[in-house]
């Protein structure tokens, strides 16, 4: 069972079989431990799962070489490796505990080298529940906790029961908001559900995908027409590129659903790896709205963000908030993420000089907005309270021409707010204004810690 939105998860949802309510009520449900109190271990199925994975890897790699000694030897060695891996997994499982102590998450791990981590939940940046296909079948889930503090700050709990993972996620978010860990899970309201047809069409209706597909067809026809096997040297990279650029996102974002909740933005998506991502309020640092050339006729865009806590590969993996969405809903999400803003109404002033005439810059009391790109339009939106550095950049040639670029830095991510081709005097005025607005916004805006228990300023 994948993650379902609230409207589709209950017995009154469309397509629910008649009589399913009574059958479900009569079905015995094994209660799972209350993970909000005391110390707990991962689910016991973690032990045989790890042992089976090690045995399969051995059978697929060294086991193939050992086939020359006979099938019984391979079977004996595989079972031996499996039992040894199971014993190690059992001891590791027994020495792995986690629990909530006050507003801290305490995790003890390690068999030979004991490691204890006590994490203040005020530093919590995001909570994800991930369920690969095999884990879905077993009724398990992996809980990923993102913290402020760099690439080594991620906490992974593998694997918990599905209901235990959901309950622990809600408890962690409640603690981060300054509430009791036993606070019921916050309600949510539907925001956007991505139709499969729109996702399929938008992913296919891109210049790189269309060009790669046409070239692949031409090479296929040429190979059959001239009986030339050399075309495989071009077909294989193109096929791999299509799988990465088209099939990968298609499987990743199928069943995509976004909802808004007091504890943040909730995203559900995925087929072979179902994922529920929760970004608490105040963790989104900047937003990018990407509109490829061919998407303009469809009226859809992609929304990306710099999310505090995600770094490196995890940042690139979790930066997309809405993969395909109508343009008006993209700006509506920006206004929800940054309360008090109206990014769609910020007046954009185009560059006055140079080759960057599609570049534009707009500033109001809440955000700075930049636009760039000719074939792929990119709009970067950064709240003044989230700016870290404001720079005026001008090389020797640009200085001779009297132009400069205004650059706004935020925490790591895809957003790179930069407005080029500005008059030098105008760029200086913009930089001074952004510094002043940033100082005022930060002095009047509280941080994201314990947001639910703060009094309004």
TrEMBL record:
Residues 93-171, 261-330, 362-431 form the YdbS-like PH domain. It comes from the Bacteria. Residues 1-28 have a biased composition (Low complexity). Residues 1-35, 433-457 are annotated as: Disordered. The keyword Metal-binding does not apply. The chain crosses the membrane at residues 47-66, 72-91, 196-218, 224-243. The keyword Transmembrane applies. Keywords: Membrane, Transmembrane, Transmembrane helix. This is YdbS-like PH domain-containing protein. It comes from Marinitenerispora sediminis.
């Amino acid at each position: 069972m994948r993650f379902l939105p609230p409207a589709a998860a209950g017995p009154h949802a469309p397509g629910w079989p008649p009589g399913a309510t009574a059958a479900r009520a009569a079905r015995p449900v094994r209660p799972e431990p209350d993970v909000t109190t005391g110390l707990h271990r991962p689910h016991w199925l973690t032990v045989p799962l790890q042992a089976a994975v090690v045995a399969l890897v051995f059978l697929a790699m060294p086991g193939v070489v050992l086939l020359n000694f006979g099938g019984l030897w391979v079977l004996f060695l595989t079972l031996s490796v499996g039992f040894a891996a199971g014993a190690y997994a059992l001891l590791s499982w027994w020495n792995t505990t986690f629990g909530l102590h006050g507003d801290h998450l305490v995790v003890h791990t390690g068999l030979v080298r004991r490691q204890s981590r006590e994490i203040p939940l005020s530093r919590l940046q995001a909570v994800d529940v991930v369920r690969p296909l095999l884990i879905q079948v077993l009724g398990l889930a992996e809980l990923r906790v993102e913290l402020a503090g760099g690439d080594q700050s991620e906490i992974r709990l593998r694997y918990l029961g599905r209901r235990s993972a959901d309950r622990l996620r809600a408890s962690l978010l409640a603690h981060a908001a300054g509430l009791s860990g036993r606070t019921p899970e916050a309600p949510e309201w539907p925001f956007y559900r991505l139709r499969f047809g729109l996702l399929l069409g938008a992913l296919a209706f891109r210049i790189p995908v269309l060009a790669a597909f046409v070239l692949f067809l031409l090479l296929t026809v040429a190979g059959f027409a001239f009986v030339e096997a050399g075309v495989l040297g071009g077909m294989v990279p193109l096929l791999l590129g299509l799988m990465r650029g088209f099939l990968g996102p298609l499987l990743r974002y199928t069943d995509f659903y976004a909802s808004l909740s007091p504890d943040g933005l909730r995203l559900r998506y995925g087929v072979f790896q179902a994922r529920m991502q929760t970004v608490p309020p105040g963790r989104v640092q900047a937003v990018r709205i990407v509109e490829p050339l061919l998407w303009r006729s469809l009226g859809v865009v992609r929304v990306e963000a710099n999310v505090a806590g995600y770094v490196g590969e995890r940042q690139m993996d979790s930066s997309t908030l809405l993969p395909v969405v109508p343009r008006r809903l993209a700006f509506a999400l920006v206004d929800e993420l940054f309360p008090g803003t109206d990014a769609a109404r910020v007046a954009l002033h185009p560059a006055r000089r140079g080759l960057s005439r599609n570049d534009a810059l707009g500033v109001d009391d809440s955000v700075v907005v930049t636009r760039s790109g000719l074939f792929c339009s990119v709009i970067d939106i950064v709240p003044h309270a989230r700016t870290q550095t404001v720079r005026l950049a001008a090389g020797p040639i640009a200085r001779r021409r009297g132009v400069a670029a205004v650059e706004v830095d935020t925490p790591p991510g895809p957003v790179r707010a930069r407005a080029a081709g500005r008059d030098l005097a105008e760029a200086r005025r913009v930089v001074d204004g952004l510094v002043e607005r940033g100082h005022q916004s930060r002095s009047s805006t509280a941080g994201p810690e314990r947001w639910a228990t703060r009094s309004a300023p």
